[in-house]
Amino acid sequence: MLGFPTDPWLGMDIIDLKQPELYFNRELSLLEFNRRVLAQARDEATPLLERLRFLCIASTNLDEFFEIRVAGLKQRVELGAVQPSGPDNRTPQEILKAVSGQAHDLMDEQYRVLNEVLIPRLAEREIRLIRRTEWTEAQEAWVHKYFEESLLPVLSPLGLDPAHPFPRILNKSLNFIVSLEGLDAFGRSAEVAVAPAPRALPRIIQLPMEESGSGPFDFVFLSSVIHAYIDQQFPGMQVTGCYQFRVTRNSDLFVDEEEIDDLLRAVEGELASRRYGAAVRLEVAHDCPEDIVEYLLHKFQLGRDDLYQVNGPVNLNRLAAVCDLVDRPDVKYPGFTSGLPARLIGSPDLFEVLRKQDLLLHHPFESFLPVVDLLRQAAADPEVLAIKQTLYRTGPDSAIVDALVTAAQAGKEVTVVIELRARFDEAANIGLAERLQEAGAHVVYGIVGYKMHAKLILIVRREGRTLRRYTHLGTGNYHPRTARLYTDYGLFTSDPVIGDDIHRIFLQLTGVGRAPKIRKVLASPFALHGAMLERIDREARHAAEGRASRIIVKVNALVEPQVIQALYRASMAGVRVDLIVRGICCLRPGVPGVSERIRVRSVVGRFLEHTRVYYFLNGGESEVFCASADWMDRNFFRRVEACFPIESRALRERVIKELKFYLKDNTQAWVLQNDGTYHRRAPRSGASAFSAQQRLLELLASPG
């Protein structure tokens, strides 16, 4: 264990807070988060189908980890990078080796949970994932008919020979490699073929009760159907083996922003290349023979560390379809209706409500509908002159976009700043941009070199002889679907200073010129980083001088080294620091003399924790901010972010109370240990169980 002098003033003079031992590696910390997600799939207290959903989420998270993080490490190795980098001072080769070991363990555990825990438990509840060796005669007859009618016409196996080279394999697509004996119709000897699974067909097929004699929730895998009848694709030849495989590719887009004239068209052009980026991982059936495994590794230019042999479907995330197809409340979370603040019930005029006082909503416990209603009201109101909004992710068929289109068609000045490079939502955002432009809205794509990540709405309304600005500032995306799944805060206000600040931010986003002075809102990449360092150091001064001090921060990730060092200094000065960090945390807590007053916890539950909240006690004059920004380098320096104060005393106290729910949680909270592992909290003997998310549902939502 690390140990340092315990005198804070002596320690701050002699301790090097940049030494690598004080930092966890960000990639390994992200994998630790995925362990916590996977633990939800093992949790007996979680409804059964939700456990399956958590398994799928863990699989999807790991896919993205390979597509972006592992791909980036591999690129650095290929470019010859050998020097240690990052606060933890590791080489890319060292990180890749450690990542490979952890990722293999994670994937082995995913399939163990599926095969040994979830499939048997689901069968006990009459939800069956039936392997082809278990099909009844009636089921096999129906499956064979399905193969002939739905699969056979679209299945196109490719024999491999000098005239038919190994095909390009789409990123994360389901494929089969088939070993053969014999001669084909042309007298050719083909030993190997590849059969891509048709992308248009579902990976999970529900068996009809009457036609197959199955139960109401019996399913088969598309992979099982292809396995069962693949020999029909090679008449006159003998199929000696059929093995599913999937390759994961580098999916990070590269757009040289200094060399392009039209960002939309450049991103659009890069999307196709994402499907065929460099391979970074090969998943293959566990029973695949060694010679075929080596053949595939050679074709994809991968090493043994990149090989993941799995006992089950290679695309686990497709099992999420079962959760949607099974309409069984007894194996899902109880339903709920998002609540509404009393001020909004029976008050159709949101502008009137906001003229009187600020409004803070905590989604999904409280409804996202007021955000949509505000835009709809603005679109229909003849006194509204202009609407400005940022969009990072919003989803297809968005009511938000519908309202903006209506406003533009009504002749209002509508300006929308769309982030075309929101990862994996690029294509959807291009479509939204084109739709808004056709309606007459002004569409811009943010700032070259910076991602636009702030969540902002600005409405300008004529009221008598003056213009009033109404704003909405959020911690999460304007996405009605994820607003039911992610926790986020949204502040509505008519505060003239905040309105002017947001007006100035939009001027930066749509125009040119130096950064204007902003009074209340802290924006990246200009003021946020320095403001956080100053406030953390202020708490340290308060503690050293005997005044009240406390820091509570809730973010999705804590990575940025200068902020971590400031938190270490605060702890050394005597500040009690509580960090609620959902995912990556590079800070090492509990180091004597450095971080012994810092506690770090992660809450993983029904909803994805997404709120970003910063609380500073400030000698008793507390400050509370909500923000779109995590405490990462990219959020401070390479993104446009907005951090906004909660100035209403009642709202500020409410946010602090809700933060303390998360500190009290003893059912879904995981505490970060000094060695980088997490231990799940449990109620002490005789103590009551407490879940922050459940408590917020009880306080703010309505029963389903």
Walk me through this protein's architecture.
With 704 residues, the chain is an alpha/beta fold. The chain has three domains: 130-326, polyphosphate kinase like, CATH 3.30.1840; 336-520, Endonuclease, Chain A, CATH 3.30.870.10; 524-703, Endonuclease, Chain A. It contains 20 helices and 29 strands. Strands 15, 19, 20, 21, 22, 24, 25, 26, 27 and 28 form a ten-stranded mixed β-sheet that branches. Strands 11, 12, 13, 14, 16, 17, 18 and 23 form an eight-stranded mixed β-sheet that branches. Strand 16 (455-463) and strand 17 form a beta hairpin. Helix 12 (369-380) runs parallel beside helix 13 (399-409). The protein is globular. Mean pLDDT is 91; it is low at 5-11 and 255-269.
- What is the CATH H-level superfamily of the largest domain? Polyphosphate kinase middle domain
Return the CATH topology of the largest domain: polyphosphate kinase like
Radius of gyration: 28 Å
Helical percent range? 25-40%
Number of helices: 20
How many domains? The number is 3
Question: What oligomeric state do these chains adopt?
Answer: single chain
Q: What is the CATH level 1 assignment of the largest domain?
A: Alpha Beta
Q: What value does the average pLDDT take?
A: 91
Query: How large is the share of residues in beta strands?
Result: 15-25%
Q: What is the molecular shape?
A: globular
Query: What structural category characterises the helix and strand content?
Result: alpha/beta
End-to-end CA span: 49 Å
Q: Spans with pLDDT under 50 lasting ≥5 residues?
A: 5-11, 255-269
Mind describing the biggest β-sheet? 10 strands, mixed
